[in-house]
Amino acid sequence: MRKQVNHALLFLALICITAMGCGVYSFTGASIPPGAKTISIQYFPNNAQLVEPTLSQTFTDALRDKFVSQTDLTLVENNGDLQIEGQITGYTVKPVAITGDQTAALNRLEITVDVNYVNTLDESKDFDQKFTRYEDFSSEENLTSRQTELIDLINEMLVEDIFNKAVVNW
Fold it and tell me: Which residues constitute the domain of residue 107?
């Protein structure tokens, strides 16, 4: 029994050392280009027609937190090896499920961000793309009572999409 435990620990240690030795892969699935040490993520201004005052800051913070916590990259103010900038271009609430009496059963909060990603080490990885995500909520609910929760959920999905597009090569 003790021999099996020792072999399992040795195997686990070997896997960890091998993965860390590569320096370009993390257990989160991020594939950071060799030589990339820094990332700069600029503040995302809210240029949507309907402006939610805290959205820019919460989205930017969530994006920065994701890259710092899920990679070994150091966040720098400008000119990172990897660079992300953009803007929030859409923040809309619209009905999505109409009942027989022409009233909305569900409403949808939708957020769109335009993202420009630059990989200074491999320009073939650069992209300029729109990302849109949404959450539905009952029309019987007041948006203001659920807004923070919905924005957090949407931000989480948007950040995951951007992270995957930028550094996960599945």
Answer: 33-167
